[in-house]
């Protein structure tokens, strides 16, 4: 298949056919992110994307799930996205899922009616990197939107009938006490948005990022594993979700947890408390380590 540069997709989309609709990320300024530093953001030509779908049919046969890459495929014009969706469903009769990364800015640049139109043409899920619900943290990581704009974007996706998968990042505020504020405020923003699914990640430090330089200069300190777990416990403790899945099944994490909220909340808290109180490192798994 034809791809430009490294291709990234959510961990849960590992078996999907990845269709590269944009090159790079429309924002590409987050201090912790290393994924698209080698790319200059641009939209791919529509005819090239449609040709890729034709090639994918020959290469993969019928597929059931497709994920639109790179970092913000929703930044494409609505009319182009609709043509891509229609072509995908026409080409793959067994297709049941199309997902995409979506930035808050790209969501807010589209009206509710436009998002509903995308849902009607088969856009099933949007992945939104919330990262934190703390205003200071969002500014520090140069996320490019305010807390209020993030809430508005998440709610608009849900109002359109598109499933919303948000990611939040443990350790992003450094050590306590700021870590506790990050945890509580991230729980609160999830409560306000009420996403369908919440993916928990842990910060990974990568050379070439602004965060890496801050650590080298002594301006930021990455929390230890038990501090990370305490942050996660506090976050889950303050979550008041009506019907949301939560998962930490990702290589960046030292523990894999998955459950539905609110019914699984007590079980998650019991598991975390048992590990933290007993300092039971035997229950932790190796994770992608900080490369400092």
TrEMBL record:
InterPro entries: Aldolase_TIM, BchE-like, Elp3/MiaA/NifB-like_rSAM, rSAM, rSAM_sf. It comes from the Bacteria. Gene3D superfamilies: Aldolase class I. One of its GO terms (molecular function) is metal ion binding. PROSITE patterns: RADICAL_SAM (PS51918). Its cofactor is [4Fe-4S] cluster. Keywords: Iron, Iron-sulfur, Metal-binding, S-adenosyl-L-methionine. Pfam families: Radical_SAM. Residues 11-247 form the Radical SAM core domain. This is Oxygen-independent coproporphyrinogen III oxidase, Fe-S oxidoreductase. The lineage of its organism: Bacteria, Bacillati, Bacillota, Negativicutes, Selenomonadales.
